[in-house]
Amino acid sequence: MLQENQVGTTTVLDAAIEAGCSGIVHVSSIVALLRAGARLDHESPLGVALGPYTRSKVDSERVARDRQAAGAPVTIVNPGAILGPRDPYLGESDGVIRDILRGRLPTWPRGGMQWVDVRDTADVVVAALGRPGRRYLVPGENVSLPHETLRAVTGRRLPAVRMPLRAALPVLQLGYNTGWSFLPHTVEGARVIALDTRVDYSATVDELSIGGRSLAESMRDSVRWLAEAGHIGPRAAGRCFDSPR
Description:
Blueprint: H1 5-18, E1 24-27, E2 39-40, H2 52-69, E3 74-78, E4 81-83, H3 92-101, E5 107-109, E6 113-117, H4 118-128, E7 135-137, E8 141-143, H5 146-154, E9 161-163, H6 165-178, H7 187-195, E10 198-199, H8 202-208, H9 215-228, H10 234-237
Parallel strand pairs: 1-3, 2-10, 3-7, 4-6, 5-9
Antiparallel strand pairs: 6-8
Helix pairs in contact: 1-2, 5-9, 6-7
């Protein structure tokens, strides 16, 4: 990530600028803006690095901001953790939902971070094409314990305990170092959650008229898709199939 993300961003943006593109969107992340306990918005400065992924996102967005400052028609979009149906690669957030429904994540770090729907993210990216020089945060909801919304949409108990970061890190680090599939391994993700940032996306709503789906709708659609795609069984999906689409 450290070798490729910044170089890849530079290569693609400069190629688009050289080709004369009138609208270029760099999809970054809220993790490029992180600061402990901060309220993030479209004017937030670049944040702190908590590991290789967040550092690569900070470095990549710095490239995009430099191109904006030079007058290139670049827009930056910062989504939170992206979830949603029809995920061709089973991304991290949908993978987390799958693992919670399988009973593999009975603990969760204390703190919170924003989750956004992939369809809302796509809508913001498309709308941002005509707004060069701007930055937009994607509408979504702050999540302190995803199990709570999953309980509501599935009707399942899904017990979970929130733990301080210092208590969770030894197990996460062991999973990260060994690659054992039965252990969680998202060390950097836990550090992001522990910062407990909030996201102010009001500028996106005001300028682009995109308000975003509820977390319950996004999770219900994600769970249905996970079951349809064979990532979880029908029993794990609970009553998600009982409610109207």
